[in-house]
């Protein structure tokens, strides 16, 4: 269920990127961005109150649709207000705030979400748990941004593309007045703008008495028209090349990131299992357990007149054991199961021993009283979110210097060189993963890998924004963003299946993909001098 919750979010972002991307070229950047942010915020708030898993999935899906549309529209919207000489620097600053947003979420999660499995067990019966508060607060920035967007003007470049020249000139006057208010003497370079002619539109002849159908067909026609223009000449070669680069960058980056998190769990589980104790072929009589029983595996034991009172039983297994005249009172369990066990005259008071924890067991004259209600999911008490917070914090901190440095080099050495060097260095750094055998080394590697990758992400974002004409700019970016999400899902499946195998498999796959992307970069045109 956790996996599907993440997958449904990626599916929603994929649909949102494509949907809002197309709408951005038809309805305008500002209007589309406002709708996407509102969708994200509103459904994010609703998700915090959903009582069932299916409703949570549904609301998270619609919230993710809003998230997916934000990035393509924001980059395009912002780029169309910028002058050519500093466009790369200012667009890179968006990634700086992306990292700041990630830090905000990490710190917020640290303060709100339970940091351990034990805390989750204590709060899991609360209807409005801490994670709901976390979802609710995380939705606030999107709502505030949507409100703020209402005070922004429409993109003047979009207005010119639509033939609304008078509105565009009014926006330019506003921009000039803002600049003069901050820096006297500077003038906005209107000479950079191309004023296009009206685009020819192909209409389908529909009988006038079928208005709704006509509008639906016309909308579908316009959407398909925008998508086909992205792949049509003279954009065909560029689109295919950028699709390859988005795919290689996403597959390599997300694949390694996912593998690192899963492999860290494997190391922790292996260390925990290595400390396990085994007790076999014993008879335990007339004693009481009132302390934590952890990481112990019982096999072929007989318990006679034994009392388990106010005990936490964590990661234990009872295999082929017999319980005679025993008592379980006020018991909490985590990852504990009874297999092929026999219970005679045994009583259970105030426990969370649900039916699924008894596998192929026989109960004779044994009774359950006041079984604890609420969620029956078997929480892992060893799960420590605090460690996940630290990992995420280091990854977000690595983005900040990378985004800042790339903002100064994109306009100097160019987008293509920055992208190529980033993919090459990222690909060459992956083999060093072989040397990382401890958790600390894996976290350090992830920080370095993220730092090297940020340059490439900044560059490909800027290139994808600048390379296309205004009438298909958000559509093309939406397509690339959607492909990125699909690739992330595929990399999750691919790299997730190699966690238990040798490290050489993800190293070879990721390194090969990233270096192949670096070779493809050499065929890209430099876009830093393009008029937007």
Automatic annotation (TrEMBL):
One protein family per Pfam: Sugar_tr
Spans through the membrane: 6-22, 34-55, 61-79, 91-113, 133-152, 237-260, 418-436, 442-463, 475-495, 501-521
Membrane topology: Multi-pass membrane protein
PROSITE patterns on file: MFS
Compartments (UniProt record): Membrane
GO molecular function: transmembrane transporter activity
Assigned GO CC terms: membrane
Domain Major facilitator superfamily (MFS) profile: start-end pairs: 1-528
Cross-referenced InterPro entries: LD_SV2 (IPR055415), MFS_dom (IPR020846), MFS_sugar_transport-like (IPR005828), MFS_trans_sf (IPR036259)
Keywords (A to Z) from UniProt: Membrane, Transmembrane, Transmembrane helix, Transport
Keyword Transmembrane: yes
Cytoplasm is among the record's keywords: no
Family per similarity comment: Belongs to the major facilitator superfamily.
Protein name: Synaptic vesicle glycoprotein 2B
Organism of this sequence: Parasteatoda tepidariorum
Classification lineage: Eukaryota, Metazoa, Ecdysozoa, Arthropoda, Chelicerata
């Amino acid at each position: 269920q956790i996996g599907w919750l993440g997958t449904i979010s990626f599916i929603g972002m994929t649909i949102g990127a494509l949907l809002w991307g197309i709408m951005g070229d038809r309805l305008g950047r500002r209007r589309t961005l406002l709708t996407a942010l509102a969708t994200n915020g509103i459904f994010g708030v609703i998700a915090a109150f959903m009582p069932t898993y299916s409703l949570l999935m549904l609301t998270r899906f619609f919230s993710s649709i809003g998230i997916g549309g934000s990035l393509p529209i924001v980059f395009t919207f912002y780029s169309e207000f910028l002058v050519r000489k500093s466009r790369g620097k200012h667009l890179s600053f968006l990634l700086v705030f992306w990292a700041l947003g990630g830090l905000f979420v990490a710190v917020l999660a640290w303060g709100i979400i339970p940091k351990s499995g034990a805390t989750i067990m204590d709060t899991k019966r609360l209807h409005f748990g801490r994670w709901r508060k976390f979802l609710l607060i995380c939705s606030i920035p999107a709502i505030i941004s949507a409100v703020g967007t209402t005070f922004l003007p429409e993109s003047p470049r979009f207005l010119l593309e639509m033939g609304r020249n008078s509105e565009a000139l009014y926006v330019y006057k506003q921009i000039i007045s803002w600049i003069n208010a901050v820096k006297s003497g500077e003038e906005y370079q209107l000479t950079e703008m191309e004023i296009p002619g009206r685009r020819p539109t192909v209409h389908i002849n529909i009988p006038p008495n079928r208005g709704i159908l006509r509008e639906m067909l016309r909308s579908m026609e316009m959407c398909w028209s925008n998508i086909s223009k992205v792949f049509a000449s003279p954009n065909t070669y560029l689109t295919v090349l950028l699709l390859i680069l988005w795919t290689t960058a996403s597959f390599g980056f997300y694949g390694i990131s996912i593998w690192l998190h899963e492999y860290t769990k494997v190391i922790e589980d292996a260390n925990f299992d290595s400390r396990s104790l085994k007790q076999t072929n014993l008879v335990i009589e007339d004693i009481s357990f009132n302390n934590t029983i952890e990481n112990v595996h019982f096999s072929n034991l007989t318990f006679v007149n034994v009392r388990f009172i106010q005990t936490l039983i964590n990661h234990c297994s009872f295999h082929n054991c017999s319980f005679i005249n025993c008592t379980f009172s006020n018991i909490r369990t985590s990852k504990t199961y009874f297999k092929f066990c026999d219970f005679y005259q045994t009583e259970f008071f105030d426990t969370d021993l649900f039916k699924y924890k008894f596998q192929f067991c026989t109960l004779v004259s044994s009774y359950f009283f006041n079984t604890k209600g609420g969620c029956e999911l078997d929480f892992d008490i060893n799960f420590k979110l605090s460690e996940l917070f630290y990992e995420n914090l280091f990854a977000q901190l690595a983005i900040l210097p990378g985004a800042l440095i790339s903002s100064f080099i994109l306009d100097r050495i160019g987008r293509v060189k920055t992208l190529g060097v980033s993919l090459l260095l990222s690909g060459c750094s992956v083999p060093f993963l072989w040397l990382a055998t401890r958790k600390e080394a894996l976290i350090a590697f992830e920080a370095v890998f993220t730092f090297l990758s940020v340059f490439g992400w900044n560059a490909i974002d800027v290139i994808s924004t600048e390379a296309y004409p205004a009438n298909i700019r958000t559509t093309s970016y939406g397509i690339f963003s959607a492909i990125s999400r699909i690739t992330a899902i595929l990399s999750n499946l691919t790299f997730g299946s190699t966690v238990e195998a040798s490290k050489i498999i993800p190293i070879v796959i990721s390194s090969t993909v990233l270096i192949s992307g670096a070779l493809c970069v050499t065929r890209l045109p430099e876009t830093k001098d393009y008029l937007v």
